[in-house]
UniProtKB/TrEMBL annotation, chain A:
This is Glycosyltransferase. It comes from Umezawaea endophytica. One of its GO terms (molecular function) is UDP-glycosyltransferase activity. CDD domains: GT1_Gtf-like. SUPFAM superfamilies: UDP-Glycosyltransferase/glycogen phosphorylase.
TrEMBL record, chain B:
This is Phosphopantetheine-binding protein. It holds the Pfam family PP-binding. It comes from Umezawaea endophytica. It comes from the Bacteria. Residues 18-108 form the Carrier domain. Transmembrane segments: none annotated. The lineage of its organism: Bacteria, Bacillati, Actinomycetota, Actinomycetes, Pseudonocardiales. PROSITE patterns: CARRIER.
Amino acid sequence: MSRFLFVVPPLVGHVNPTIGVAAELVSRGHEVAWAGHHDAIGKLVGPDARVFGCASPELVPRGSDLTGPAAFRFLWQEFLLPLGEAMKPGVRTAIGAFRPDVVVADQQAIAGGLVAEELGVPWITSATTSAELVDPLAGMPKVKAWLAERIDALRGGHGGPDPRMSPHGVLAFTTRELLGEVDLPHDDVWLVGPSIVPRPSTADFPWEWLTRDAPTVLVTLGTANADAGHRFLAQAAQALARLDVRAVLVDPDSSLTEVGDNVLVRRHVPQLDLLPHVDAVVCHAGHNTVCEALWHGVPLVVAPIRDDQPIVAGQVVDAGAGVRVRFSRATSTHLSDAVTAVLDEANGHRKAAALVGDSFRAAGGATRAADHLEKV
Amino acid sequence: MSVETTAPVTEGQVTQDQITGEAVLAEISGMLRVLLDEYGLDDVEITMATKFHEDLELESIDLVSLSADLKERYGNQVNFAEFIAGFDLEEIIAMTVGQLVDHVVVSLREAARG
């Protein structure tokens, strides 16, 4: 029996994949715990899970105009680097109290890798998005150096392994079918596929609203982009009102006022329960939403906003599983064309999505991840 | 598009005097308009001061396309990857069309000098 400590940032998409892996480890007789922001993590992992609290700055809302390299600077300078600094004491306490045999450190909770390395505990990277696997800053050496210097400063400036890419092993929740033929950072990057397990849903849903008479389209911009999405959602609502579909729009801020009769607006939806009934997803190309859609063989219209999303959107298009539109400029016409295109069987998007979904299930997900973690 | 009325800068066939910022700006504007074509850039004037990110909202995939367009137009005389690699984070955020135009003009003039 071993103990595994998951170090995670207060971001839903980074916590959810660890839940399935942890459950699998527990079913094999191991002990698990999380280190991270107590309330944010606690409500995701459930009341019975052991959570070691860590301090955490807030990810302040980012407007829709904060994109590209400016969004990168903001994300690191205003959130991930301060988060790394703030989480260090809590991670040290967690390791001291829980005595884990292995630390599983999320790529955006850099305190995990830094502290585990400092204390000599074996640590594995949890890559809940594949964007870092493709070396996104390869063409910008000065930007790469900017980040490396700041990360190194967090550990006292004496150098060491990149806390986002453990030399001991990287759990990457994707497969070749989505990632494409890129060179991986090292041999111990394990493509285990997404870790998708049923999760308790807090959102109710009027299931009777769905009908078999018309295809169902889900529009969601994920859990971290509500403030940026008002214009896009309004255009999407207009586009879908024109099509012979049933549409579900996730609008956390209730920014939409009038929509067509065939459009249902909800602040939250039980996404995993809904996806088996969905024929197309329009989203921001967040890695988790993309993987959950593809898991169910649902083709996508991707409108990346920032961060890893442009890379993930590129992977969806390259896999043939969807079409890409510009988040900031797409009009209702672009969006209705794109939705029509992915719903058209003749274009092959659904088939390509199903193939990626097959690869996900074959990769083993949480089970395969647990296999790797047991061997550390 | 107005670019067609401007004499193109053709590698190897021009004297240094013909490699003007004006001509290169027209060509690069043309490339950008093709890139963003279906998204209606009609209302956006592309000048030397236009910012790649803030004004045009270009994505990394667009920079890859632009790099290919530049290569097709100017061959190996212009190295876009090297141009990007020279910038630090603040410079990349603030990158303008004018900086690329200047880079292309300098590169072409150097190539023309042989």
